[in-house]
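thread: overnight batch results

M.L. [08:02]
morning all. the overnight job finished for the chain we discussed friday. pasting input first so we're all looking at the same thing
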Amino acid sequence: MTIFSDDALFQALNAQRYKEAEQAAQARLASNDDDVQALLVLAVALSSQERWVEALPLYRRLTELQPRQAGHFSNLATILRQSGDLKGAEAMYRRALALHPGDPVLLSNMGLLRWQQGDMVETRELMLAAFQADSGLPEPRIYGALACHACADVDTARHLLVGCEGWPHLGEDFEVDLATALIQIERLEQAETRLKQLMHHYPQSNRARLQLAALYERSNRIAEAEALLDIAGPDIPSSSEELSLRAALLMRSDHPQPARLLYEQILQQGNATAPNAPYYFLLAKCCDRLGDSTATMQALRKGHAAQLESALRLEPELADPVSEPLAVESHRVPEAGRLWGPIEAPDEAASPIFVVGFPRSGTTLLEQMLDAHPDLQSMDEQAFIQDVIETMEKAGYAYPGDLGRIDSATAEQLRKVYWSHVATVVTLDAGQRLVDKNPLNILRLPILMRIFPQARVILMLRHPADVILSCYMQSFRAPAFQILCSTLQRLARGYVSTMQLWFDHIELLHPQVLEIRYEDLLDDPLKHTRLLGDFLGLQDVSPLLRFDEHARAKGYISTPSYTQVVKPLNNKAVDRWQRYHEQLDPLLPILKPIMDHWGYHPE
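M.L. [08:03]
and the structure it wrote out:
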């Protein structure tokens, strides 16, 4: 009998002559069934032929023979993952990491598994650790970006994908997931280009086709999305991605009942809880459209429960139900502290127009109306004012208590930080004014008034009960907001605290503010566009009334209301809360001070 040397064994394996390597290893094992090198070659040869069941006991035996070799546990984990035993794979990856904790490939493999299991929090931690250990690996950058986005860490997601346009072709799955990450950070053209190139190389790639169709739907290119789905034929596939996309398109064409059935099918076949959370919220919107308030609330309770666990892992200090997720008091300027000296600042025409309001109050609608005017340009929702606050704090100023210490030179430096961020997302033409819409800048009025004291501010209002219901029905990404919205009572308290802070700051800071009620805007759009025109100094307000045409031409709109703002004005969402009296009536005493202030009545 011929006994093959280690060199011969690995030479056949490295040359991908797997049958030859398999036979050589079996020949060696005939005389010594614990020959580590032969076991390894045979296991790799079998797994390379996708003969997972035969390879599995060999990898197990290797971990027994060499329990200090992290590679054996990693290989075993990979085989377990391939065979569908995700819990077993997780245990083996953890054993491997215990032996070699800083290995970037192990960290990345473990991160991929946790991604597959739906744990975005640990995926983010593992992939960032792998990236720190080896920034050249693509997996930590792609899946780290996806996990960071899921955890509302968009800045890190963007950082991880810097330079990815120069990456070589990565293979079907990695390319699709890279495109998904690029869409999430709003690099749409690059995502579309990579997906089209992938479909050119792999015409049968179902994942690439689906992701490109999803990009088209998200960009309001409905006909293109439907055309890509038609390639698959009339049969409804079983993948969650395709079912979800078909359901989204059905909702766009006002067919909520078949969309509901598709979302229910997705949830029935789902395994992990956390990844199912968005589908519960989508199902709830279908049920709400159908008038089934009981099913709507059932789906929402499940959705919030699915979100809450990971949100509390990211924000554990908010576990106490009486804690304040929006940290409203940290934004308060004490009355005694409002001793600000005058500073040099730009005039109204050189200042942004700030659109604020509690989320789901109609701020996106107003933004798109203003963006339709040729003299104005919006930039979708950005956190640039919060970036200014963080810059101020890094410079040694406490916010908001030290706003009075900011002199003209410091204010100018903070404005430069703001405008440098703006320049990364939008280019203003000569004479154009920026519209900065971020609902929660309602909490940041003091910094707005310190660095842009002449800025015009528009507060968007809506019936408080409709606001609470709409927020509760929305799947927010920010962990603090997920926690805030986890119960209707907590959400109502947060809303009231926010509005009370606004009242106090209005009295203290005296900004130039226009209040627009969502319901009034819908009842008499011409009157209220004229009010907007007078407030902002716009000569011709007619473009504001054609905002839906402008929004459709614009394509991608980053906020959750992207499907609504491409339609003409309608009052379908007005007084929707009254269909949910049982759940919302107990909140009316909490909301009463705000409802009284703005003239909203319970009935």
